[in-house]
Each structure stands twice: as structure tokens, then as C-alpha cells.
Design goal:
Layout: E1 10-14, E2 20-30, E3 41-49, E4 52-53, E5 55-57, E6 60-62
Antiparallel strand pairs: 1-2, 2-3, 3-4, 5-6
């Protein structure tokens, strides 16, 4: 689970000192009255894990290496 306080589309997942994976996030920005400070939130649409589209199972994205 992750919470991002600013929009980003690329994250690096460091597994070991020699193994780093790349996550590419695609999301839509949703305005919401309950989040007055941020004035909305990003709704995740898809994730690419090392250029492979992650499989979505409900609200969870599955990465297989």
C-alpha cells in the first residue's frame, strides 16, 4: 500500500543493492469535496512493472518477476 502526496508517474523499487525495478503509474485526478486541503486525489488506472502491465485483482495489483 502506498500514499503519494504529490503526483508522480515513475517509482523505483529497490529490492537489493544490485536489483532495482521500475514502476510506471497511470492515473486520473479526481476532485473530491472531502479532501479540501489537497482538493482531490489521483485514482490509479494501471501500473507497469518493468514494462509489463501488472495484473489487477480487485483493488490489488500483482507483480510477477
Amino acid at each position: 500500500m502506498s500514499t503519494l502526496l504529490f503526483p508522480t508517474d515513475t517509482l523505483f523499487l529497490r529490492l537489493t543493492s544490485t536489483d532495482t525495478d521500475t514502476l510506471f503509474l497511470s492515473y486520473d485526478y479526481v476532485k473530491n469535496k472531502c479532501c479540501d486541503f489537497y482538493r482531490g486525489y489521483g485514482k490509479l488506472q494501471s501500473i507497469k512493472y518493468n514494462q509489463t502491465i501488472a495484473i489487477q485483482e480487485g483493488l490489488t495489483y500483482v507483480f510477477k518477476k
